[in-house]
Design a protein that fits this description.
The protein is mostly beta strands and about 300 residues long. It has one domain: 7 Propeller (Methylamine Dehydrogenase, Chain H), CATH 2.130.10. Helix content is about 5%, strand content about 50%. It contains one helix and 28 strands. The longest helix is centred in the first third of the chain and has 13 residues. The two termini are about 30 Å apart. This is Peptidase S1.
């Protein structure tokens, strides 16, 4: 990307306020997967941390919090991690994925993409025209069209989630052709991890359910800009910039992790926050562990357990 630092950070804030997906994420996006939803996993790797710098460079490190960074790609607008796979979405909308070590070769997965998601041996893309496609298996496997009119896609184990342009959150479990279940409406972000599903409603209320697709929702917090799930941890970024995390059951107590935050990421026993000044911090262990400064001039942070 050739956009300046201030503009890039501004867009990051705007995406968070609109329920931008975390890849943690995953993203989005990022999960310790329960046995009930376990998919064939990508090969295990050491835990990884990825950052997208304001100059468009994507860097990844693996192992401890103080290991060295490896430049993965330039002209990037999203970086995604899962198992031994790394994905980047270039400024031109090309989704690339590599598998194995940090220096392996890239494989072009799709073009005309606006979001990329990874989990186990699945890859998902959301195209500019709102189509959600997923493939399973090797990097050259065939794509399956999952849904249309989509504005976010999330993957976790054998579950696929999509957020439709009308705010409807749908999840399916099992094969790529399984039946969709409507989870909630008036949603602006959806998150998956193991047997948990989370939604962030348009009014800023974060809800999480645990178990089957028809389990009961539990209200987690209000005034939320971003929701993150990983294993038995839930993280929220509040509209005042405070990052909170809880561990255990859905009714566990919140712990204040940091303030002046614009993104939160979870993976296994790691918590990451991206501060408003562009500093990326990660801690490992308990909720009260010490923060480690990972990088600066960052506009996106990604975490992976190495087995997700």
């Amino acid at each position: 990307m050739t956009i300046g630092t201030a503009v890039r950070r501004g867009r990051t804030l705007a995406r968070a306020a609109a329920g931008r997906c975390t890849l943690a994420i995953a993203g989005g996006l990022v999960a310790v997967l329960g046995a009930a939803t376990a998919a064939p996993a990508a090969a295990a790797a050491p835990p990884r941390i990825g950052v997208l710098k304001s100059d468009g460079n994507a860097l990844v490190k693996e192992g401890g919090l103080s290991t060295n960074w490896v430049l993965e790609h330039d002209d990037v607008k999203q970086v995604v991690l899962a198992g031994d796979r790394i994905g980047v979405l270039t400024g031109g909308g090309t989704a690339l994925v590599k598998e194995g070590g940090l220096s392996t070769n890239w494989v072009t997965e799709y073009t005309g993409v606006k979001q990329l998601a990874l989990s186990g041996d699945r890859i998902g893309v959301l195209t500019g025209d709102g189509r959600a496609l997923v493939k399973e298996g090797g990097l050259s496997a065939s794509w399956v069209l999952e849904n249309t009119g989509v504005k976010q896609i999330v993957l976790a184990g054998k579950r696929i989630g999509v957020l439709k342009s009308d705010g409807t959150a749908l999840v399916k479990e099992g094969g790529l052709s399984a039946t969709w279940v409507t989870e909630n409406t008036r949603v602006r972000q959806i998150a998956l991890s193991g047997n948990r599903i989370g939604v962030l409603k348009g009014n800023g209320t974060a809800l999480v359910k645990q178990g089957g697709l028809s389990a009961t929702w539990v209200t987690q917090n209000i005034g939320v800009l971003e929701l993150a799930l990983s294993g038995n941890r839930i993280g929220v970024l509040k509209d005042d910039g405070k990052a909170l995390v809880k561990e255990g059951g859905l009714s566990a107590t919140w712990v204040l992790e940091n303030d002046n935050v614009i993104q939160i990421a979870l993976a296994g026993n790691r918590i990451g926050v991206l501060k408003g000044d562009g500093k990326a911090l990660v801690k490992e262990g308990g909720l009260s562990a010490t923060w480690v400064l990972e990088n600066d001039n960052v506009i996106q942070l990604a975490l992976s357990t190495g087995s997700d």
